[in-house]
Amino acid sequence: MRRVEPGPGQESVWDYPRPPRAEAVHRRAVVTHAGTVVADTDDVYRVLETSHPPTYYLPRTAFTDGVLRPAQRRTVCEWKGTARYVDVVVPGAAPLVDVGWWYPEGDVSATFPELADRVALYPAPFDEITLDGERIEPQPGGFYGGWITRDVVGPFKGGPGTWGW
């Protein structure tokens, strides 16, 4: 693994902190599934953690009514608390199962109160997710939900051979 040196206007994920940090950003996120915009907001937080592209959290209220369906899956993050998962359901399309997660008010850790009731998404299954009009790339692998844009450089954890980083 060799760190990519960031160019002008870029960040290296290797400069991100551990434990992670959450911060509000002024960017517009648009999420599309089955030709339908399921979320559109500029009320965005990102979580930065060493070796990961940012994970973006959107308010549950930014999603079109009825597209988020509670799922059974739950996981625990050592930093953020107990996550509950959601499916994204659009009429006429196959549901995207366990495609997002959120931390309800009572389940989010005291370290990350700003993430309460915000949804993060695994981007790969969606038709498209854009950030300020740029189509994002999903973080490699299926475990993490980072969004890769041209303003972040890696290498990124998640692909084959990166588990031990």
UniProtKB/TrEMBL annotation:
Domain DUF427 positions: 30-123
Pfam families: NTP_transf_9
Gene3D superfamilies, sorted: Domain of unknown function (DUF427)
Highest taxon, organism lineage: Bacteria
Record-given protein name: DUF427 domain-containing protein
Species: uncultured Actinomycetospora sp
